[in-house]
Amino acid sequence: MARRWLKGNTHTHTQYSDGDSPPEVAVDWYEAHGYDFLFLTDHNVLIPDDHLAKLQRPSMPVWQGEEVTMAAVHVNGLGVSTQIVPPWPGRSMYEAEVTHSHDHRVRWAVEQILAQGAVAHVNHPNYLFTLTADDLMAAGEFGLLEIANGHPGVNNQGNDTYDATEVIWDKLLTAGGQIWGVASDDAHHFQTWRGWLQVEADSARVGDVLDALRGGRFYCSSGLALGGYEASSAEISLELADGAATIELIGPGGTVLETISGERAHFRLSAAGAYARVRATAANGRQLWTQPVFR
Ligand SMILES: [Zn+2]
Ligand SMILES: [Zn+2]
What we know:
Elements: E1 4-9, H1 23-32, E2 37-40, H2 49-54, E3 62-70, E4 73-78, H3 102-115, E5 119-122, H4 133-138, E6 144-149, H5 165-174, E7 180-184, E8 196-201, H6 206-215, E9 218-221, E10 226-231, E11 235-240, E12 245-251, E13 255-262, E14 264-268, E15 275-281, E16 287-289, E17 293-294
Parallel strand pairs: 1-2, 2-3, 5-6, 6-7
Antiparallel strand pairs: 1-8, 3-4, 4-5, 8-9, 9-16, 10-11, 11-14, 12-13, 12-15, 15-16, 15-17
Bound molecules: zinc ion (2 copies).
One zinc ion binds at residues 11, 13, 67, 186.
């Protein structure tokens, strides 16, 4: 079956928690901007089924999610059907009220999410600089990690003391983790920087999209799109849809192995090491990130 690329956001807030808008406004925005699917992920709450049914749009299914929120440690459950209630304070940011370590909380949330057949993604590790690469390594395999989150307070770029989120991703990959990178809006206000996924799924049904997320059949973007992409363990070829950018091949340790300026790139991976991935950056700063190819 021919697969199609679906544009979707996996991290969205509404007035069911701390978003500034009712779900109808959020859904309208994504529908008007050409999205193919949307997960609503409020903090520790699910949208009631009868309300979710009314939010469906002909061209854009709207799916249940939950941002499992344990003080500053947040893990999204995509496709959950039963509310997950953490035994730790949720909306409070006071770590003193939480008696379990960061990695313990991530592991707990991931277990709850996977037990429902849903997909977990660990959110904004640098929110309050909460989750380090060491914390995430201690948490075990969790699947997906936000490397680019549109909320203004999440420190994607790190600082002098803390790694950028993309550096954290490379540390996990270098240590042998199989982690897919995610870009999301974490939209609360509907007029900010945006991040989304382009998912190569068999259909726009939730099960097929979750399968594609589990399998890493997607890329993440903060403004760039692929016109074509072919990858194997031996080579990666890609074409950008919107003109030239700086296209980098990245390998273990986050090392940039090769840089090409242009609209297309063909990389041979013979010298790449255990994994390789591609990042493209346009002159205006917009980026895309493909998933790692393991060798
Ligand atoms: Zn969060
Ligand atoms: Zn959020």
